[in-house]
Structure formats: structure tokens, C-alpha cells
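Onboarding guide, step 5: your first structure request.
Type a short instruction followed by the sequence, for example:

Predict the 3D structure of this protein.
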Amino acid sequence: MSKRIVTAAALTAALVFSGTTAYAATTSTQLSNGTLYFEAQDGSVVSGNSSLFYGATKYKKTGGSTVYVYLKMDVKNGIFTSPQKAVSAGQTVSHSFGGKSKAQYAPDCKAAGLMNSNNGGPYWTPIVTFC
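The system replies with C-alpha cells like these:
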């Protein structure tokens, strides 16, 4: 594995809600049993590659029974989906979608978080502009 790939993977992992910066576009939606969060950043900030963007979706469950969720990122030209994740009250699940091409998937620099569960949905966050 090249040093460049390892660095990009580390930066992508750090994007999963490690804290917000002036460059992060973040948003959230309050649900009856938790909060759905989404964060997107321009690649020029995350990896130095301005042709990419990075997004991450997180669900913090505060009540109710265990559910199985798919965390997603919704952009103009596609929807990216995590593997299914189980989450119980008091737990948080998240997924980072890695570097994606702005030109191919989000030429308008807009993205939103999305979640489906075995108990309902879809649930969206408001759209953010990340560049």
C-alpha cells in the first residue's frame, strides 16, 4: 500500500466527526430517538486534492429499541451507502465515504446525509454546500 493511500485513508477516517473546523460544512436533523448528522469537506482542505470531496454521516441513538440502519450520502449524481449497522440506545454509528470526484458526483458542491432503517425512513439532513 502506498504512502499516499495510507495518508488519504487516515484523513478520511479523521473526517468522521473528529470535530468541526471553519472548512467543514455540517448539519443535523433531530429524530424521535436520536440525531442524524452529516459533514462534508472540500478535498483541498482534507487531502490537498481540490478535485475531490469527503463526506461522513453519523447517527447518535438516544432511545428506543435496537435498529439496523444504512447511513448514506446523497449528492446530485448518486447516493453512497454504508454497510448495514446495528445501533442501540446510547450508541453512535458513523460512516465516512472517502474521497469522491466533485466533477462526477457533486459538481454543484452540495450534499446531504441520509439514513434508512428497518424501523422507517428515509431520513435526511439539510443540504450543505462544501465548496
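Each response can be followed by summary notes, for example: The mean pLDDT is 87.
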